[in-house]
C-alpha cells in the first residue's frame, strides 16, 4: 500500500507498514501543512510552491538550504535527497542542542538545571532551555511544573514565547498545550502567537485519536524496554 510519509519536512510516497513508518508527532502535523503547499500534488515541493507557501516551509525557501538538500541540482527533492537531508538535519539539530546545553553549563557551572526555583530566578536560562530538545527530553516534569505558574509566565513573556513556538514539544504534551492555549489573557496580549496557537489547538483536537494511538505505542515500547531491563537485572542478581 502506498503511504504518504514526511522526510526532512518533505512528503514522499512509498510502501510502508505501520511498524516501519515510525510516525512522529511533528511528521503528523507537517503532513497537513505540506498538502496545502503542494499545489500539483506530486509529493514534492518545487521552488515556486515554496515561494507561494506560508511560513511553514521557510527552511527550504532559503537558497543555500534548498541547494544543500537538492544534491543533484534538478530543482526538486528526491526520496534519496530527502532521506539524506532529514538525517543531516537531525544530526545538526542534535549537535546544536548538545552544544547549547554544554555552553549553559559552562556559563553557569554551579547551576542545577533541574532546579525549578533556580530556573525561575534565571529566566534567560529558562528561555534557552525551552528550545533545547535534550533538556526537554531529560526534564519533562520540570518543564511542565514551570509552565503551571501562569503568573510567572505572564511576567516573563520572552520565555512563554519560546514555549508557544515549540509546537513539536507541545504536540508531545497535549495536556500542557491545552492549558497554554486556554490562557486567553496572555494570547490576547500577543496576537503574533495567538493565530498559530489556535490553529495548532484545533489540529490537536482533530487528531486526538491518532495522537493517543501514537502515545500508546510509545508507552508500550517504554514498558517493553523496562521489562527487558528488569529481566537483565534479575539475571545479574541471581548470578551474585
Spatial sequence of strands, sheet with the most strands: 1-2
The first-level CATH class name of the domain at 1-89: Mainly Alpha
Overall 3D shape? globular
SSE string = EEHHHHHHHHHHHHHHHHH
- From the alpha-carbon coordinates, what is the Rg to the nearest angstrom? 20 Å
Unreliable stretches (pLDDT < 50, length at least 5) are 1-23
Q: In the CATH hierarchy, what is the architecture of the domain at 1-89 at level 2?
A: Orthogonal Bundle
| Mean pLDDT metric | 78
Helix content: over 70%
The count of β-strands is 2
Strand residue content: 5-15%
Straight-line distance between termini: 51 Å
Number of helices: 17
Q: What class would the helix/strand composition place it in? A: mainly alpha
The main pleated sheet reads as: 2 strands, antiparallel
CATH fold naming of the domain at 1-89 = Recoverin, domain 1
Explain the overall architecture.
With 240 residues, the protein is mainly α. It has a domain at 1-89: Recoverin, domain 1, CATH 1.10.238. Helix content is 72%, strand content 5%. The chain contains 17 helices and two strands. It has a two-stranded antiparallel sheet with strand order 1-2. A hairpin with a 2-residue loop joins strand 1 (2-7) and strand 2. Helix 14 (174-181) packs across helix 16 (191-206). The protein is globular, with a radius of gyration of 20 Å. Residues 1-23 have low confidence and may be disordered.
Please sum up the structure shown.
The protein is mostly helical and 240 residues long.
